[in-house]
Protein: GTP cyclohydrolase-2
Amino acid sequence: MPLIPTLSETLARARADLRVGLPVVIRDGEQTALVAAIETLSPARLAELRAQGAPHVALTARRAETLKARVYDGDLARLPLPPDQGADWLRGLADPAGDLANPMKGPLFAMRGGATDIERAGIALAKSAHLLPAVLVVPTTQDLPGLTRFDALPAIASLAAETAMAEVAAARVPLALAGQSRLHIYRPDDGEAEHYAVEIGQPARDKPVLARLHSACFTGDVLGSLKCDCGPQLHEALRMMGENGAGVLLYLNQEGRGIGLANKMRAYSLQDQGYDTVEANHRLGFEDDERDFRIGAALLRRLGFGQVRLLTNNPRKVQMLENHGIGVTERVPLITPRNRFNTGYLDIKAEKSGHLL
Ligand SMILES: Nc1nc2c(ncn2[C@@H]2O[C@H](COP(=O)(O)OP(=O)(O)OP(=O)(O)O)[C@@H](O)[C@H]2O)c(=O)[nH]1
Ligand SMILES: [Zn+2]
Structure:
């Protein structure tokens, strides 16, 4: 019996491969293509890929709009790689860092017609590897042993909900702001980041629990950045749970609303150029919010909680939990002080993302 990796295992390998600059093979019916992340593509690897066939780029519609490329494929655009262009040109398409210095990348000719599911899967893979959402796609007929391959299209978008998570450890941690807590570590089967649950006191399972789903923010939570409200929200939530005597805080490793810390810093760099938090995400090729809140719902259920009093200003979080089987009996606002660095950010969250601030 050959040992065949599961889809979760293949996904974990594919993310690692893309991050180090290796292409993966994706098959969709009769079509097979090599897919590589542009962010990590070296000139030497590009030359190898060119020897396999005619490459094209797949970008999200968000990035294509910034580049003024035509979008014929709904949520993505495909651009052929011209023979006289190379790694620098590709990098310019993927990475907005050079947009101001070099605004004219085109004219850019977009491809039309034909199947686009391999491209869509490739972009989803690059996003889940926390790379820039832009991939090089090379249709091929060769059998390429040694590369990670998907023999059918990976249904990445629906995977997170189904991914199993194992509790790997739990132990008591006394907290300055909340008293006794128990920290649980959960590890997803598909190699994604671990998530944490902090149980404060001994919350009853048969009553709505005071809960917070907190997305990781290295800059705010750890460094005390004044650019956002994350650190004060984290501390205030813990303090309220301590005062309440019980609660549960999920610390979800979805840094930068799911785009990863490197991309969040790219977004900050665009914000330094004057774009707001939403525009910066779009210029990078991301949606405003790439988080998958199903993970939070799954974790709450796993901990035995079916109903929550949710500490949040974000109505989407309430909606997503309810959609995924967790009753939100009350939304408890979590308002923290403004300062001159975060006030614009909070205004945009209220205006464009519907936060109740
Ligand atoms: N992409 C991006 N992410 C940011 C930026 N500023 C903060 N973040 C991230 O935004 C997320 C905020 O998470 P939360 O505080 O849990 O969620 P929220 O949507 O603000 O809703 P609340 O429950 O009301 O706080 C964290 O993952 C931060 O890292 C930014 O300018 N760009
Ligand atoms: Zn933050």
